[in-house]
Amino acid sequence: MQIYLDHSATTPTRTEAIAAMHGVMTAAWGNPSSIHQWGERASTAIEQARFQVAALITANPDAIAFTSGGTEANNQAIMGVANLYDTPQHLIISSVEHSSISAPVSWLESRGWQVTRLPVDRSGRVDPEDLATAIRPNTVLVSIIYAQSEVGTIQPIAELAAICNQHQVCFHTDAVQAAGKIAIDVQKLGIDLLSISSHKLYGPQGAGALYIRPGLALVPLLAGGGQELGWRSGTQAVPQIAGFGVAAELASEELVVESSRLVGLRDRLFELLADCPLLVPTGDRHHRLPHHLSFWLQIPRCHPIAPITGKTIVRQLNLAGIGISSGAACASGKLTPSPVLLAMGYSQTDAVGGIRLTLGRSNTTADIDWTALVLKQILDRLTPQLVCV
Q: Are 228 and 241 spatial neighbours (Cβ–Cβ below 8 Å)?
């Protein structure tokens, strides 16, 4: 029995998206910048996808610039604003951002930019009052992740965006984990910049998008032919973009029903694991992605067996045919604590014990029940004197 529960890492490409990609590769393979019929067919496929992706977040299609993925979209947002200024300014992020935000921000910081990293509470949420207090006269950008991939916590985006609008500060959000999972209306929320990734919502890998509010100034990362309305030079990956568009349209159509179904499965798994004292839920139970569960392994430090980490559980479940993930990273044989759990107040020792289970379209009640049973058996075997009920 194979059960995939790592949909926050990537999702399987939908057959409808694959069909759209095949159609482009066989009938619309021209260069979309060419004005002949071959180019026009490719250009039409891109523009159709632009409308489909825009509709997912209730945006104007002209505000969508296609990228190679969420990482590029995030970098474009950060560096596109920063490069507007000849001298370093001030920007604000949260302490639980994805590395495609934190890394370029750290690079700017090394070159004189002032950076404020907002703290989060034990559930991983930013306090809007902390943002209001942190804004300075020279603050030019605020970037707060919409939903955290490791612990599933959804940030108070509407409040955060409103504060930025009040102070006339550009507001960006990394919505890679949120788009297609929860309803997003960039216009009602007052968002200036928003990043999306295709492969997180059953589209192909290698495509993403950055929403850029009409009228907003931004310096492109790439210079060249001026594709993507001037925002992103380079011949577009038409098949990936077409597949992205179809996946976005289907995600929008199915969002309400599928999100409700996933919440039911998610809560069922939480309930089935509630009698295991070794598993302590992390993140916010109320402001949470509908498909997302995460736990901290509460293993007593006096436990006689070698330390049990999140990676241990990932490997054991993989042997049982179940795919999940952990937050800690392994480099050169040494386990690095999750920076997200550290930011949430967990110790260095505890921050290597996080695991994440993220559900998707193919998962069933039988998958949930079997996963709970297998996970408990693994923990019972690894910690025989700390048996789950």
A: no
Residue 57 has pLDDT above 70, yes or no: yes
Instruction: Determine whether 330 is an active site residue.
Output: yes
Report yes or no: 235 and 33 within 8 Å, Cβ to Cβ: yes
How far are the Cα atoms of 82, 121, 248 from residue 161, in angstroms, in the given order? 19, 19, 24
Q: Alpha carbon 135 to chain centroid distance?
A: 25
Phi, psi for 386 (deg, rounded to 5) = -125, 55
CA 5/CA 11 separation, integer angstroms: 10
Query: Can you say whether residue 81 is alpha, beta or left, with left for phi > 0 and alpha for psi between -120 and 50 degrees?
Result: alpha
pTM of the model: 0.94
Number of residues that make up the chain: 389
3-class secondary structure, 137 = coil
| Residue 117, beta-bridge partner list | 93
Q: For the segment 17-36, what is each residue's pLDDT rounded down to a tens digit?
A: 999 999 999 999 999 988 99
DSSP for 41-106, written as a single string: HHHHHHHHHHHHHHHHTT--GGGEEEESSHHHHHHHHHHHHHTT-SS--EEEEETT--HHHHHHHH
DSSP output for 322-364: EE-EES-EEETTEEEPPHHHHHTT--TTGGG-EEEEE--TT--
Question: Is the pLDDT assigned to residue 231 strictly greater than 60?
Answer: yes
Catalytic residue of the set 276, 302, 330, 388: 330
Q: How far apart are CA 141 and CA 156, in angstroms?
A: 17
The pair phi, psi for residue 22, each rounded to 5°, is -60, -40
d(CA 196, CA 176): 5
Q: What six digits make up the tokens of 245? A: 């568009």
Greater pLDDT, 223 or 197: 197
pLDDT per residue as tens digits for the range 138-170: 999 999 999 999 999 999 999 999 999 999 999
For 205, the token pair is 């890998």
